[in-house]
Structures are given as structure tokens and as C-alpha cells.
Specification:
This protein is an alpha/beta fold. Helices cover 42% and strands 17% of the residues. The protein contains 13 helices and 11 strands. The strands form 2 sheets. It has a 7-stranded mixed β-sheet with strand order 5-2-1-6-7-8-11. Strands 4-3-10-9 form a 4-stranded mixed β-sheet. The longest helix has 22 residues.
Length: 344
């Protein structure tokens, strides 16, 4: 099996490196100084058990790699448009795209059945452009329960977790799903094949859609947010809005709000990815994590007033001139400021 990791950041490089370590044919697609460090000195992976350096193939040009069996998307959802066109050389006749991204995926309604089957989520697939670059029929879902960090150029540290549930948008256990699950398990990951990947998406989204914006607005860690009685109460209200939207689309979660909050608190003094991106001046995953939930709520006539307020406040905060290291691109800003749109 030939694998390309598109976006060799903290998660992408870690997954790609661990797969490569098993002997899999893996190439990293990266850029900048991080790429040059990997090319020069190799990819260093630090875990609780290992400190290894891998001479893994890495390039900034997908044409150097050519068609692969699996593309592992290691970029954030708002980057799909910018990297999609460049990824064309990776896509052969049977190439599978492993959508290991937070939030509502661009393929969400593909194969879902019922009246929404094939509908577009405008917040993450504006104008259908992402679907044209990454056809939904190529995608398998993947939810990431793994924490890693790029600690230096070419260096990735594993902090916690190794679970990557995978599932077909249409359900069932296909050959391609089984093949990817086996690759991941051989590399030491837990990659169970789940019958309903959308349930897994909403379980994680219940936390991400709420805790990320609250953290970005307050600068607080997960532990601080969940231990403060007033913010905890607000978080619970917002999580119930997320649950109501999920139920409107036939997804009933087996995880309660109380369990989800307790799980977040147990993570400890951790800054969410949105807060880290805000502090680093990077574009935010605002539409995939929050905007898409609001859009889906609007389509199903489910009110999400608190999520709407959080979305608006974070969007405004991200554009303020006093934001440290602000590099808010025009494309990212235009996506973030788009009002939720009802689509067929």
C-alpha cells in the first residue's frame, strides 16, 4: 500500500512516521522550514517509550509522489480548498481519502440516506469546491483521539491517545476500510471500524464546538473552563444545543453532556487547538467546528443561540489588530464571516 500524508504537522507527521516505521510506503507532503528539517535530518518522533529518527520521504510537491492508495489528510478543514488542487497528482483511480479532520466533514451527507442524502454543508464545502477537489465517494471518515505537538522543526512529540475510529460514510465494512484499519493497527494505533462514523464525529464535536471557542475567548485551559461553575454551566447549555442538532439528523449519542464535560476536565491544563492557533496568529477551524453546526441547526429549525454568539465573538476576536502574530488571510476571513446558509 502506498500512502501520502497531506499536511505533515503534529498529527500527520506522527501518523505518517509510525506507519513508515512498520515498513509501509509512506511519503509526507509538507512545506517550509519544517519540511526542510525533515529532509535534512529526518523526522524525530518522541513518545513515552521511544525517541526515534526516521529518514522518511518528504516533499512539498505531490507530483514527486504520484498516485497513492491512501491520502491521509493531516491539514485542518479550512485548508482543504488551498491544498486540494495541488493534491491532484496523488489521486489515482482507486485512491481513498482518509478525512482525519475535526468538525463536520465536507462529505457528511454522502451516503447518509433519507432526504438529506448528497446535500452540501456550505460552511465546509463552499460552492461545492471541496467536493470537486476531494470527491465524497473517495472519503472514509476518521476521528482523531490523539494529542501530539511539533516541539521543534522536524520534531513531533506524542502526548496522549492513540485512537482513530474509522468508518464508511455509507456504513458497513468495505475492503478499503479494513485495509486502512489494519495499516493503522500494525503501526500501534487503535483504529476500530465503526458502523456509524457520524456518531463518533458528533461525540468529539460536542466538545470541540463548545470548548474550543470558549477557550479562545477566555484564554483558559480545559481544566479551568470545566472547574469554574459559571463557565461549566454555559458549556453544558451549549453542548445541549449541539446534541439537539445531532438528534435532528437521526444521531443519538451514548455519551451524556456530564460525561463529556468530565472527560474534558480530566485532560487537565490543556489549551485547545483553537486557542493555540489564535495565539499563534493562524486561521481558525471556526466553520468546521462551530459554523457547520449552526448551519445544520438552521436547516433543521433547531435554535443554536449560544453557539451563534460564540461563533460571532471568536470571529471578531480573530480579526482584532492586537492579536499576537496575526496572519488572518483574506480567504480564511471570508469563510469565517460567512453567515450560515440553508442549502438543498
Amino acid at each position: 500500500m502506498k500512502i501520502a500524508v497531506l499536511g505533515a504537522g503534529a498529527i500527520g507527521a506522527y501518523v505518517g512516521g509510525m506507519l513508515y516505521r512498520t515498513g509501509a510506503d509512506v511519503s509526507l507532503i509538507a512545506r517550509g522550514e519544517h519540511l526542510r528539517a525533515i529532509q535534512k535530518s529526518g523526522l524525530r518522533i518522541i513518545t513515552a517509550r521511544h525517541d526515534i529518527t526516521l529518514r522518511i520521504p518528504a516533499t512539498d510537491d505531490p507530483a514527486d509522489v504520484g498516485p497513492v492508495d491512501f491520502v491521509f489528510l493531516g491539514v485542518k478543514a479550512h485548508q482543504n480548498l488551498s491544498i486540494g488542487a495541488a493534491s491532484a497528482p496523488l489521486l489515482g483511480t482507486g485512491t481513498v481519502i482518509v478525512a482525519a479532520q475535526n468538525g463536520v466533514p465536507w462529505w457528511y451527507f454522502h451516503g447518509s440516506g433519507g432526504r438529506h442524502d448528497g446535500a452540501r454543508v456550505e460552511s465546509v464545502d463552499p460552492g461545492g469546491h471541496v467536493s470537486r477537489l476531494f470527491p465524497p465517494e473517495r472519503a472514509i471518515g476518521c476521528v482523531v483521539y490523539c494529542s501530539t505537538e511539533v516541539t521543534d522543526l522536524g520534531v513531533v512529540m506524542h502526548l496522549d491517545g492513540s485512537k482513530f475510529p474509522v468508518g464508511e460514510p455509507c456504513g458497513g465494512r468495505s475492503e478499503r476500510l479494513q485495509a486502512f484499519s489494519e495499516l493503522m493497527r500494525a503501526a500501534g494505533f487503535r483504529a476500530p471500524m465503526v458502523r456509524d462514523i457520524r456518531e463518533q464525529i458528533w461525540i468529539k464535536l460536542m466538545g470541540n464546538a463548545v470548548l474550543n471557542p470558549v477557550s479562545a475567548l477566555t484564554g483558559a485551559t480545559l481544566e479551568e473552563i470545566c472547574r469554574d461553575p459559571m463557565t461549566r454551566q454555559g458549556v453544558e447549555v451549549m453542548m445541549n444545543e449541539v446534541l439537539a442538532v445531532a438528534r435532528a439528523y437521526g444521531v443519538t449519542l451514548r455519551v451524556s453532556v456530564a460525561q463529556r464535560v468530565a472527560g474534558a476536565e480530566a485532560v487537565g491544563p490543556h489549551k485547545t487547538s483553537m486557542l493555540q492557533d489564535l495565539e499563534a496568529g493562524k486561521p481558525l477551524e471556526l466553520d468546521a467546528l462551530v459554523g457547520a453546526v449552526i448551519e445544520l441547526g438552521e436547516r433543521a429549525d433547531v435554535p443554536t443561540p449560544n453557539l451563534r454568539l460564540a461563533h460571532a465573538l471568536v470571529r471578531l476576536r480573530a480579526t482584532q489588530p492586537d492579536r499576537p502574530g496575526r496572519r488572518w488571510s483574506a480567504d480564511a476571513a471570508s469563510v469565517a464571516t460567512r453567515s450560515p446558509t440553508r442549502t438543498a
